[in-house]
Specification:
Strand order of the largest sheet: 1-3-6-8-7
Helix content: 10-25%
Number of helices: 2
Distance between the termini: 47 Å
Number of domains: 2
Number of strands: 10
Shape: extended
Structural class: mainly beta
Largest sheet: 5 strands, mixed, barrel
CATH superfamily of the largest domain: Nucleic acid-binding proteins
Order of helices and strands: EEEEEEHEEEHE
CATH class of the largest domain: Mainly Beta
Length: 168
């Protein structure tokens, strides 16, 4: 089976996320997404260029979940697609625009510190335990269900040993 891929976008949340309702009652989340741009210099350093701003929207249950978790100035990564559209201003002038329709969004682990809460998992040898990566994809979803929510165990980041402890 081929690898499923989608377009992604990353940046920072430049506006306060706005959760509204569409005409048919579906949740709609609007975020102004900022993207910093850099140019690599011949010496290996980087020069920051202009920051650009883009519209990102989400719909339905995903929008409601994201609205509860995402705040202004959070760094995020989103998966979805670009939707081009045309607008007409008050003078009758038409202009082309685009928005990113996000199907999924989460905090950017390269730029965010966070804690993950998971449901307790069976230990090796217990009923329902997963023996390895080859079983993880199918059995984990079957055991939890495709729409399971976060649980209660807290995953803390690993701590590094002091340099003296590793022979430096």
């Amino acid at each position: 089976m081929p690898l499923k891929t989608q377009t992604s976008v990353s940046g920072f949340v430049a506006s306060t996320p706005m959760l509204t309702r569409t005409d048919n009652g579906d949740a709609r989340l609007f975020i102004k997404l900022g993207q910093e741009h850099y140019t690599r210099n011949p010496d290996g350093s980087f020069t920051q260029g202009e920051t650009t701003f883009h519209d990102l929207v989400m719909f339905r249950r995903s929008a409601e979940r994201a609205a509860a978790q995402i705040e202004k100035m959070d760094w995020v990564v989103a998966e979805g697609y670009v939707h081009p559209y045309t607008v007409t201003d008050a003078d009758g002038q038409m202009s082309e625009r685009e928005e990113f329709i996000a199907r999924r969004i989460g905090h950017d682990s390269a730029r965010s510190n966070y804690t993950v809460h998971r449901k307790p998992r069976p230990l090796a040898g217990e009923a329902g335990a997963i023996d390895g990566p080859s079983q993880a994809s199918g059995q984990a979803v079957a055991a939890r269900g495709p729409n399971s929510q976060a649980g209660t165990a807290t995953i803390q980041p690993a701590t590094r040993p002091a340099p003296a402890a590793i022979g430096m």
